[in-house]
Amino acid sequence: xxxxxxxxxxxxxxxxxxxxxGVAGFIGSHLxxxxxxxDQHVVGLDxxxxxxxxxxxxxxxxxxSTHGSFRLIEADIRDADACLGACEGMDVxxxxxxxxxxxxxxxxxALYHHVNVDGTVNMMIAAREAGVERFxxxxxxxxxxxxxxxxxxxxxxxEAVSPYGLTKRMDEQYAEMMHRVYDQKSxxxxxxNVFGRRQEPRSxxxxxIPAWIRKLLRDERCEIYGDGETTRDFCYIDNxxxxxxxxxxxxxxxxDHIYNVGCGERTSLxxxxxxxxxxxxxxxxxxxxxEAVHGDFRxxxxxxxxxxxxxxxxxxxxEPTHLLxxxxxxxxxWYVNQFxxxxxxxxx
Length: 348
Description:
Rossmann fold, two-stranded parallel ribbon, 348 residues, 43% helix, globular, 7-stranded parallel sheet, alpha/beta
């Protein structure tokens, strides 16, 4: 039996109290969904700056927990008192609340610092004061910055190339300090390019996969920044949920608990576009001949990214269940159904 299966069985027998920050967001709502199916007791914290109430409504409609529970706190992680109140009585914190998007961070670096750094420090302090056993927080592959080493290994990072990447590295450094000074147990998860169901496609800063799916379904032109040979390790949402559950429950030894969360694959943007287009063409043959246009490279973008997942496999028992192809099929099925339901647009 895989470690993840063992942990899920254990949790069903002994439910815990969980706090999920950013619970109405893409990743947070999937964590909530899984925890409720495991009959856990969940408190969610969100200010709905980037999350959506419809995500929570969708989760609650899908889950049928007979022993678990969910309570929402509408608050901002920049409010230290709200963070402390949310942490009281919790066994585990899954800290997902943050501002994403490298391009947006370049436009407003001060806002990113206030939310991603100040807000995360508030949560760390609140967790310590409330005596929370385990603090799991979302980091990012953006911390690798200008490092050209492939695959990316946790111990070797470069210089930051965006405010977003810098804020995530600062979060890691604060977590390391909290462990040294206060013996606070935390796990940092460096997400590589996460995609899947319920990811918002309509924002000007939307991730590439949902943005392209929506544009193709709406017969709009897709743009690839640069020559299209930029590569990414695209990681399906179910893999990210697994990493969080393992990080929250597996016994920890030592103090180096930062892990890559990816698949160990590398896909170019040109190949990604072709994959999405060709899969959609099965349903809409006219899309089979569509080509993307190429624009300029974006400031702050990393040229190549691929996760070395050796450390998380050995340390947490992580095993990706979905590589790009399988994850993409499930993602496209969801978006096509959403597009059909709304007739004129895809929703997240």
